[in-house]
Design goal:
Number of helices: 9
Strand content: 25-35%
CATH class of the largest domain: Alpha Beta
Order of helices and strands: EHEHEHEHEHEEHEEEEEEEEEHEEEHH
Strand order of the largest sheet: 5-6-4-14-15-16-13-17
CATH architecture of the largest domain: 3-Layer(bba) Sandwich
Shape: globular
Largest sheet: 8 strands, mixed
CATH topology of the largest domain: FAD/NAD(P)-binding domain
Helix content: 25-40%
Radius of gyration: 21 Å
Distance between the termini: 42 Å
């Protein structure tokens, strides 16, 4: 089989937000980087709504993930400023808070329980009455019982973000190879290269796997080298409006079911997302669309008057504990940035910075220590 003679320092498998951001950051440090992906910026990143919400996404038992999310959210202003300067592209970044709404008394009790839990961790979330919520967002239904405001959270347009990252990476010297990585080449128990779908072998000193829900698809991966990453389907609706409809991203709990609505500066309104364990199925279903519109209409009755623009489905990469695996894998030469689940866009800056430190300096930053890939092997042995 043919072998490329121009070996880069780093091969990255996957050109979503994680792979592209890491490629850009590593190339700035002087390493030769090649990214493998037949459709750069075309996976889950294209479907995501782009909410930057470590507080609103917090659930019980995910305290380390909360701190990682806050660290990443707080890096976003500087990250976006540099990215937009290098790429010359806007990203749609907004930092105007996230409003979380309760539809009925049970939902309100759930939010109050979460508020107290967050407060116990030192993470403030302001409790609002229904009237205060409607003062912030007049389009909310009169029946809304109350909510929480996370003032430091925000949103970004993932489609613009990935386009900017792709441009910035290429301008920093990253080589984009639009062939598919078919298998890992392992010699003497060391990952030394990648076999492409045309049979070509690309060799590199280091290989980073960042292929989202498809991270387990490579042939030749030894058992235990990569934690199991499962696809979790999410259906998303995109609407359009010529006049402002919503001032900030809004999450709702409607009879126990979660819904979010994310406005863009260009008039797009994103509604999402279902959460379905359906394997690699990306079929858009009538039931999924109906569920999203039903719950969104309960919170924002006027939303059904907006123009229908698009509906799509993507695959979130869920790890066994729904937190990312960041760092060296058990296989020498192979590094991982996988399993970001619903937080891929949020965790992009901190993941890129951490993986750059790991790949270039050989050190694991403190923020990434709880997310070492070998934690799954340790759990299996326990």
């Amino acid at each position: 089989m043919p072998t490329s003679t121009n070996a880069p320092d780093l091969l990255i498998i996957g050109a979503g937000v994680i792979g592209l951001a890491t490629a850009w950051r590593v190339a700035r440090r002087g390493l030769a980087v090649t990214v493998l992906d037949p459709a750069p910026a075309g996976g889950a990143s294209r479907v995501a709504a782009g909410m930057l919400t470590p507080v609103s996404e917090l659930t019980y038992g995910e305290e380390p993930l909360l701190h990682l999310g806050i660290a990443s959210r707080d890096r976003y202003p500087a990250f976006v400023a540099e990215l937009e300067e290098v790429s010359g592209r806007r990203t749609g970044y907004r930092r105007d808070g996230i409003l979380e709404i309760a539809f009925d008394s049970d939902d309100l009790a759930f939010l109050e329980d979460l508020r107290r839990f967050r407060q116990s961790l030192g993470v403030p979330a302001e409790a609002l009455s229904g009237r205060e919520c409607r003062r912030l967002e007049p389009m909310l239904a009169p029946s809304v019982r109350g909510g929480l405001l996370a003032p430091e959270d925000g949103s970004i347009d993932p489609r613009r973000l990935t386009a900017a990252l792709l441009t910035a990476a290429e301008r920093t010297g990253v080589r984009m190879d639009r062939r598919r990585a078919a298998g890992l080449v392992v010699e003497r128990d060391i990952a030394v290269g990648v076999r492409l779908d045309d049979g070509t072998v690309l060799r590199a000193e280091k290989i980073l796997l960042a292929a989202g829900a498809h991270s387990g698809d490579l042939d030749g991966l030894p058992d235990g080298a990569v934690p199991q990453v499962r696809p979790v389907k999410g259906q998303v609706i995109r609407l359009r409006t010529a006049t402002p409809f919503l001032g900030r991203s809004t999450r709702g709990v409607v009879r126990g079911s979660s819904i979010y609505v994310v406005p863009r500066d260009d008039g797009e309104v994103v509604v999402g997302a279902t959460q379905e364990e359906m394997g690699f199925d990306t079929t858009v279903t009538a039931g999924g669309v109906w569920q999203l519109l039903r719950d969104a209409r309960e919170l924002l009755p006027g939303i059904t008057e907006l123009e229908f623009a698009e509906v799509s489905a993507g695959l979130r990469p869920g790890s066994p504990d729904n937190a990312p695996a960041l760092g060296p894998s058990p296989l020498p030469g192979l590094f991982l940035a996988v399993g970001h689940f619903r937080n891929g866009v949020l965790l992009t800056p901190v993941t890129a910075d951490a993986m750059t430190e790991i790949l270039v300096d050989g050190t694991v930053p403190e923020v990434a220590v709880p997310f070492a890939p070998d934690r799954f092997a340790e759990e299996a042995r326990a």
